[in-house]
Amino acid sequence: MYKITKEFHFSASHQLLGLGEDHPCSRFHGHNYVVEVELASDELNTIGFVRDYNELKSLKAYIDDTLDHRHLNDVLGDDCVTAERLAKHLFDWCKVEWPETMAVRVRETPKTCAEYRPLVYVPVEARR
Ligand SMILES: Nc1nc2c(c(=O)[nH]1)N=C([C@H](O)[C@H](O)COP(=O)(O)OP(=O)(O)OP(=O)(O)O)CN2
Ligand SMILES: [Zn+2]
Q1: Strand bridging mode 114-116 / 101-107
Q2: Which residues are known catalytic residues?
Q3: Which sites bind Zn(2+) (predicted)?
Q4: Does ligand 1 come within 6 angstroms of the Cβ of 17?
Q5: Where are the domains of the chain?
Q6: DSSP state at residue 43
Q7: Nearest to 62 by CA among 87, 93, 108, 95
């Protein structure tokens, strides 16, 4: 299997409501988000690509237009935009664009990372 990744950056604010007032993340705050999308395929195209990195620019356009310098609670219509939920949101967008999408990772800080990767269902008959 071949795997490629590409990284995207944006800045946005959010607030994790429901955590309790003493939790720092319940306050309005922001992050310099790092998003990494992962695509995989058993086969390469005639050029030798899983997919041209250049094509992934449309994710940059989506991020710039809808997430960058915005309040994520408003954009996603969610009062608790965790990194996990943002990873799922971006995974769903990427999967429609590129069926080879395997996972999306979101970093809010250099020390944290949340990933959305669907479980692969293996039928009982195929498990032997
Ligand atoms: N599982 C998750 N936990 C937390 C999330 C999240 O999205 N998923 N988000 C937050 C906050 O929004 C923010 O990311 C702060 O995280 P934290 O690790 O507390 O960041 P700090 O820089 O303050 O960490 P220090 O350990 O103090 O350096 C919280 N949890
Ligand atoms: Zn945060």
Answers
A1: antiparallel
A2: 25, 69, 108
A3: 14, 29, 31
A4: no
A5: 2-127
A6: S
A7: 93
* From 112, 113, 116, mutation site for ligand 1 pocket: most ligand atoms within 8 A of C-beta: 112
Structure tokens at 108: 């809010």
Please give the model's pTM, rounded to 2 decimal places: 0.93
Those residues whose C-beta lies under 8 Å from the C-beta of residue 42, and which sit 6 or more positions away, are: 1, 2
Question: Quick one: which H or E segment has residue 11?
Answer: strand 2-14
Question: Average pLDDT by consecutive 10-residue portion of the chain (128 residues)?
Answer: 98 93 93 98 96 97 98 96 98 97 98 95 81
Name the residue among 37, 35, 33 with its Cα closest to residue 69: 33
Q: Which two tokens stand for residue 27?
A: 């306050």
Residue 103 CB–ligand 1 contact under 6 Å: no
Q: Atom 12 (ligand 1): residue with closest C-alpha?
A: 25
Q: What ipTM describes this predicted complex?
A: 0.93
CATH assignment, 2-127 = 3.30.479.10
